[in-house]
Amino acid sequence: MIHVIPKCSTANLIEHSLPTILLRYFSQTLTFPSHSSSPHAPQPHPSAEIFKSGTQMGSYKLGDLSFYSLIRNHASSLDFVSLEEVLHQMKRERRNFLEKNFIVIFKAYGKAHLPEKAVDLFHRMGGEFQCKQTVKSFNSVLNVVIQEGLFNRALEFYSHVVASKNYIHPNALTFNLVIKAMCRLGLVDQAVEVFREIPLSNCAPDAYTYSTLMHGLCKEGRIDEAVSLLDEMQVEGTFPNPVAFNVLISALCKKGDLARVTKLVDNMFLKGCVPNEVTYNALVHGLCLKGKLQKAVSLLNRMVLNKFVPNDVTFGTLINGFVKQGRASDGARVLVSLEERGHCGNEYVYSALISGLCKEGKFNHAMELWKEMVGKGCEPNTVVYSALIDGLCREGKLDEARQVLSEMKSKGYLPNSFTYSSLMRGYFQAGISHKAILVWKEMADNNCNHNEVCYSILINGLCKDGKLMESLMVWKQMLSRGIKLDVVAYSSMIHGFCNANLIEQGLKLFNQMLCQEKEVQPDVITYNIILNAFCMHNSISRAIDILNIMLDQGCDPDFITCDIFLKTLRKNVNPPQDGREFLDGLVVRLVKRQRTIGASKVMEVMLHKFLLPKASTWAMIIQQLCKPNNVRKAISECWTRLSC
Asked: Which domain holds residue 599?
């Protein structure tokens, strides 16, 4: 006898438990018994109820496809309790477990960020559920673990499975995942070994394999090896995709090797790979790093002509490039262009512009930009607030900077090290050192870490205030905490020692700097401090020795360097000299070392002081500037401007 099932009592039950294709069949053949239990009793899961009903009445027995549909539905809703119930129901009914059922569950564990559950179920597949694992399920679990960033765990899982007697043979996807994990861990040499073993497993690396390994090599600074891999890739018959080219272009752009970038882009076109947004962003970034902003703008225009829409990254990179070149006003014009194209500047763009304009002394323009940003609904964050506070401090408006800091805190934005360091610098520049020290203490009270910048500002401020002993205490604390010493900290302490007539102790620190890595090498400010100290004490020969070290280390003298020697030669030498011979000789030495920019700065000083160089020096300069390569470069840049 067929019973008509009331729609209100069955619709939800069936709709959430069975595939759509079975709805009509069940609505016509199944009778669900009514439950007289209390409403407070635990209700059975819909799928479990269907299993129970169907088994009791014998009217329908669920097939394997139905179980797969149930697994897929529960997996999509991340209902792992019901998934376990379905698996155990299948086990009781001695159903055949298919690998695709487990792969669906593995993916669900991945979405739920439960990689260990996926690993555990993989191991249960063969024993508890009698389902043979293959490379498909193996790769699925391996990918889940890697997506969680557990690269060591992924390699451990890989080694365990491959070494066991599961007879799972890795395929190309497996090797890609393993190489990715190794590269993320910085194990590039091991990744190369795995890469070389791929052919032994009757597999061939694909474009993704090459791209992953190239990315790992580039992160380790092994760009030449990555480029060689691109050549090998093409020899082996694997056509590189845009991803492979973008990895190399991005790495070379960061390195500033634009000549090789140009060749790569040409090669990219020859291989039929069309540059995409990633390519253009990398190129714009590279040009900005090299200060070639006009070419970056031209590239941006070409990007638009090729139907690519510049995104926030493109515009942000270009704006940041202008700011770093001291052209924040031009960066603001780029922001206007960005808005005309329907984009809105984000907080990072505004912070870079506000900070840049303040550093260039264009505080009013920076404030206009701040009001414009707030007016457009762009909520300022810690970065933007800190940029404004820095600008106010540079203008000497310390009370206003404090007010902005209070507003910042009231809106829930915590000041960072940059915020506090700006205030400290402002107070030191205003000669209010005790307030700068209070800011230092405030940082500690607010659990804001003192970084190397904060320490450098404190040491510099104390040294300029004549508090050498206090600055030495801060210096020792910096060393004891393992905080990296930077050029500013070294230069400040050297300056403090020299001002206290402790030149030899300053010289020891200077010699320490010479033994440090490139980032902590003395800059022109450091050299000028030492040079000035020796010249003030009539130790001209020692000053000349320092100047020779300066030139040997590739640091060019500036206007201050020239002034230091000119004053010494005119006041402390008998008979007095005007410095013409000295500066002329310095120009010749710089030209011979092919340091034209440094030579031109010294020449500029000579002309301002009416100290005309020798005719032979003029001839040498002109010859250097008019070398064929330089002429060709100048012509090329001229044509570039004309074509824009």
From this structure: 523-644
